Amino acid sequence: MLTNRPTYQVSRRASYLERSVLRGLLKHAVDPSLISLAGGLPADEDLPTEQLNQCMNIVLKRDGAAALQYSPAYAALHEWIADYMLRRNIACSPENIFITNGNQQGLSILSRLFLDEGKTAVIEEAVFTGTQQGTKGVGANVVTIPTDLAHGADVHHLETVLEQHDVKLMALIPDFHNPLGVSMTENNRRRVAELAARYHVPVLEDDAYSQLRFTGRILPPIRAFDTSGYVFYLGSFSKMLAPGLRLGFMVIPESLQPKITVIRESIDLETSTLMQRTVAEFLHRGYLEPHIEKLRQSLKIRAEALMTALDKHLSDIATWTVPEGGLFTWCVLPENVDTWQLFDEALDAGVVYIPGGAFSVNGGHKNTMRLNFSRVAPETFDEGIKRLSAVIRKAL
Amino acid sequence: MLTNRPTYQVSRRASYLERSVLRGLLKHAVDPSLISLAGGLPADEDLPTEQLNQCMNIVLKRDGAAALQYSPAYAALHEWIADYMLRRNIACSPENIFITNGNQQGLSILSRLFLDEGKTAVIEEAVFTGTQQGTKGVGANVVTIPTDLAHGADVHHLETVLEQHDVKLMALIPDFHNPLGVSMTENNRRRVAELAARYHVPVLEDDAYSQLRFTGRILPPIRAFDTSGYVFYLGSFSKMLAPGLRLGFMVIPESLQPKITVIRESIDLETSTLMQRTVAEFLHRGYLEPHIEKLRQSLKIRAEALMTALDKHLSDIATWTVPEGGLFTWCVLPENVDTWQLFDEALDAGVVYIPGGAFSVNGGHKNTMRLNFSRVAPETFDEGIKRLSAVIRKAL
């Protein structure tokens, strides 16, 4: 029983962080009574639940308690990932792999490594809220660059910022950008690697989605063009496999392993060895490729259904990015439409999305929305976009 | 291929962190060719591996993909923990429970919440390195208080520090202190709660071990005496169940939930829903109490064997804390003995421990060592301490 309601004096740093609207909206994303284009989750039927269960059982039977103790890094997982990275033209060895609880943790660790309060980080103007929280959360001064809806992050603008500011870290999402759904061109990836080398500024390449490509050619990551050691690659099993595993990894210079390890330990010691071993078993058994192939097909069908519905119901008043992979498209409406204001009406009409403004660092993007296509049944998109269209047209 | 070996400009904050000797020594802790008194791990045979495997299978069969997605807080786990806290005289509801990846994450989150660079935190002078990293890692100025080997943290000294410094956070381990093995008296717990209220300083009560009491009466946590809202309780399933689950929790004021949630999200979004559901199932099935009872018996037998061995081989030259629970005893040797220097010789003799100095915030404690009794077979302690005694006596 409290005698008085206390007022807590919180840190200045904590005041930089604001609750993500996106995370708050996730509850709608899983409400079965709605057509939800709001989430960033794979469809339940696209998760390899039985195979993961099988792998967990194998690990617990084989390794017993060792899979439930604190544990040094699990070598088999490091080796598999290093080999997988080699196939993506990333020169590395198991010593360059650092296991995380997903890309957000990698972002958080590297932000703490490179950023002090008031130092400058470059991020994209419309970007995943986690990227904003990871950099702003350590008190960084955030400078933004625009993202072209056809070619990804504006590298020319990036160069100007690097010339004008003492930048300590840049963070980019080159593949199937969240929320924009666009990918950077191969040439621009090369240029980013060159800029990182020239300005000696670490670039954090956040790759959660590149394997989810269902059309076109898989592009090499920025890290594949790195000859300087300034490109830090972040990979995740959240979208390739399952978010609930909380498993990701970074490719980092071996010289930074001790420092990164101690930052990680200060945060939460280490990643569950059971999860590491389970995923290693999944990979070892060759389950990943067939799973991803199935996932790509599923995403392709869903994305096409969404594109068809958008063409049918919104082509006269809206434009959108045409995704070649990933989970999202970005829809731009007439300038007088405010997607924040429409949200409740859309909810009443039984359809939800994320207002584009939720991803904006500087405010704005009010006439945009992020639409997710990974979770809804293909035959549902037509009805969902029809409802959305009716709500939007009332506001025109 | 790197053209040059780059020099990275790391943050000032990152420079505060030093690699924990303790974590580096964990590799010895699991080397089967040694008698290891170094670790902080439960014995493999004391982990409920089969029951956890059963619960995981139940969850994955019952919940399917929902157990592998991103997910809102798992209500059943919050409810169980709130009820469990009530039984420990902590007034709280499910809304006061915040799930973490273990107590280190709770410490890290609350340090970020309450501490800015250069602000003052109070910790014990000899303490778990994670406590040091959590507070120093956010750039806090750390002021220490001594810990009495009979009564725990020196509360009189604590009050003096609170009078003299503008303290923003205190962190204490009241039960079966790591590394000292001592517990705070009930009266001192009450006084700490009063001091927190009087000085409006949050106290972080790190309770990883209280359930591992094998003799004497379980004492109420500091939080049980809290009428001010300034006591933050951190609980963990790492020692009660298994470290590899990476599951802990905090009891926090509801008013701070949004701020703590956003700090957590900036670090790594959320805790694995599969782990949350698996542990909830374990708890729901009533497996915890019988498991802890078995664990207590096991620890009791091991601790008694260690005490017997210490009496037999070292009573003429050493003193040590007599644990009533937990995993550790703290052994104090003659002042001219340096346990850092003896470490390699002990390793050669086939026995390892953690030099007490590894836990010291200000240096010192060179003639001490932390001995773990949770992992070694009871019949092994005699040989282990005999070897240790021989190594020590050579140095006298």
Task: Give the gist of this structure.
Chain A has 396 residues and is α/β, with parallel strands linked by helices. Chain A is built from 13 helices and 15 strands. Chain A has helices at residues 12-15, 21-29, 49-63, 75-87, 103-114, 129-136, 155-164, 186-199, 257-268, 273-284, 288-314, 339-348, 381-395; strands at 35-36, 97-100, 120-124, 141-145, 147-148, 152-153, 167-172, 203-207, 231-236, 248-251, 319-320, 328-332, 351-352, 354-355, 368-372.
Structure explained in plain terms:
- Two copies of one chain form a homodimer.
- With 396 residues, chain A is α/β, with parallel strands linked by helices.
- Helices cover 41% and strands 14% of the residues of chain A.
- The first copy, chain A, contains 13 helices and 15 strands.
- A seven-stranded mixed β-sheet of chain A has the order 2-10-9-8-7-3-4, with helices on both faces.
- In chain A, helix 8 (186-199) links the parallel strand 7 (167-172) and strand 8 (203-207).
- In chain A, helix 3 packs across helix 10 (273-284), helix 5 packs parallel to helix 6 and helix 12 (339-348) packs across helix 13 (381-395).
- Chains A and B meet through helix 1, helix 2, helix 3, helix 5 and helix 6 of A and helix 1, helix 2, helix 3, helix 5 and helix 6 of B.
